[in-house]
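Input record (Table S2, row 346):
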Amino acid sequence: MAEVKAYAAEASDAKLAPFTITRRDPGPKEVQIEILYCGVCHSDIHQARNEWQNTMYPVVPGHEIVGKVTAVGHEVTKFKEGDLAGVGCLVDSCGTCPQCAVGDEQFCENGMVGTYNGVGKDGETTYGGYSKTIVVDENYTLRIPDNLDLKAVAPLLCAGITTYSPLCRNEITHGDKVAIVGLGGLGHMGVKIAAAMGAEVTVISTSDSKEEDAKRLGATAFVNSRNEDSMKAAAGTFDFILNTVSAQHDYNEYLGLLKTNGTMVLVGAPPEPTPVSAFSLILGRRSLAGSLIGGIAETQEMLDFCSKHNITSDIEMIKMDQINEAYERILKSDVKYRFVIDMASF
Ligand code: NAP
Ligand code: ZN
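Output record (NAP complex):
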């Protein structure tokens, strides 16, 4: 057991503050990782503030983790001391149910263990990446490509896989017309990945100031969702929409932008429900679907895809004690496009 410095929220209305946690010694199949960088996901804010009504306090958020292996259990074969390693949104699952068997550990029928705000097989609450170290089963630890900037790789562990998985499963390819709604942490990764898959990408954003960035990131068109004429002009034009919006908004307005047989996948997770009109779907035989992160093998595939296409996140580095300020800026959509915590600052 080791005492480890971390940052935690102790109540829904409390700021994050220094906190000490204990980490177990690595078991036979586990690796111990010194965390070098951790991305800041909007989910961390939803959880820290109990917006999804399931937070167990104190909560140590952070599920975009990269670092260096500092110790391994004696049965570990995939990692050795000194290797780079990554940890995403889940750190364990049963490994035997039908979902785990096909690599969808995030839908484990016996309950996947979240990297934070989860309960591990040892019965202990899991604590995430806003901390100096973490101990994880080697089968839930990712190999990090060595041709990419490590700090800009961290956000791939959640924002990367959450956008890669639905784009891949919907077989996005050359010539497909894809819209990404919301140009934030997830959205900017969605643009890069969809463009690398060959899609013609449009960014749909509430803010005109993001148009230039959208094009630099790989989009060929931009629609301001608050401009009625632009939305009207885009009606019926997309094969696929990836919706990353974090706050309540009218899904019907976006469903109308799909072609016949088009699909909108929700990855954004606003706490409040929103009504969907049957007519938004039955006219044009449109589909509305959802997607949750991705499995471990799929996450490794995404990292390898990003390595091949030289894709990383656009990041703003922060020190650990700037986290509360960073949360406020994320809520104002004022981040280009992911905050990453430098753990050496702590
Ligand atoms: P983010 O960086 O804050 O980006 C969200 C974007 O949504 C903003 O940049 C903004 O884009 C847009 N937006 C915000 N409020 C809006 C509103 N009222 N109406 C329309 N657009 C609005 O957040 P993120 O880290 O990318 O996460 C996005 C969401 O995905 C969160 O709810 C998060 O919890 C969820 N998430 C889900 C999964 C999953 O597995 N499904 C995984 C990770 C995160 P513009 O400025 O361009 O309008
Ligand atoms: Zn996340």
